[in-house]
Design a protein that fits this description.
The protein has a domain at 20-60. It is 47% helix and 13% strand. The chain is built from three helices and two strands. The longest helix is centred in the middle third of the chain and has 11 residues, at 23-33.
């Protein structure tokens, strides 16, 4: 039963892959480049907003 076969970890109930080829990891890297360093919060928001980077940034700058 391998639910999560890619390398990564659980963050606030969501699986975050550490593979650089995933959209979530690309978005996490983009957020870090923008100065948003809280990876756990960023991963949670990306999961909440279905990896919509614009919505995550809007939430972070409120």
């Amino acid at each position: 039963m391998g639910f999560c076969t890619s390398p990564g970890r659980w963050v606030n109930g969501h699986w975050v892959s550490s593979s650089p080829e995933t959209p979530r990891e690309a978005n996490l890297q983009a957020l870090a480049e923008m100065g948003f360093w809280n990876r756990d919060l960023n991963a949670t928001l990306l999961a909440r907003y279905s990896d919509d980077l614009n919505r995550v940034v809007a939430e972070l700058v409120q």
